Amino acid sequence: MDGLTQSGDFTEPVRGFSPQGQIWWQVIEGSSQRIIVCSVVSRTTGVEVRIGYRDGAVIRTQLAFDADAARALAHTWLQALRTYGSLALFMTSSK
Fold first, then answer.
1. Cβ neighbours of residue 5 under 8 Å, at least 6 residues apart?
2. Which residues on adjacent β-strands are paired with residue 21?
């Protein structure tokens, strides 16, 4: 079962997602030639989707309720990066 599972008064991490994280996609930013990574991490409250440079800190995170929502968000971010061409422009446009 995808999504948040409930068991009594507490929740369990989303099944199929590692608490250590998984990389879903990575692209090379055209202007800087740096690698941008989108990863997901299972949390007790859902799936945390992260984006940032592979060699640096996480730039943005957003929590998705279930696996389908996390996939949709990761896809949206990838399409936006392809449109804007850089992480800085993407971040500016998505505020």
1. 11, 12, 14, 15
2. none
Q: Where are the alpha helices (DSSP H) in 1-95?
A: 67-84, 87-93
Are 72 and 11 contacting, i.e. CB atoms less than 8 angstroms apart?
no
Report, in angstroms and rounded to the nearest whole number, the Rg of the chain calculated over CA atoms: 14
The encoded tokens of residue 74 equal 């990761």
Place of tokens 């590692």: 18
Average confidence score pLDDT of the chain:
77
Using CA atoms, how far apart are residues 80 and 5, in angstroms rounded to an integer? Answer: 31
Domain boundaries, the chain: 17-93
pTM exceeding the 0.85 threshold for the entire prediction: no
The pLDDT value recorded for residue 5 is 37
What gap in Å lies between CA 81 and CA 84, rounded to an integer?
5
User: Hey, which bits of the chain come out as E strands?
Assistant: 5-7, 10-12, 22-28, 35-43, 46-53, 58-64
Number of other CB atoms surrounding residue 23 within 10 Å: 11
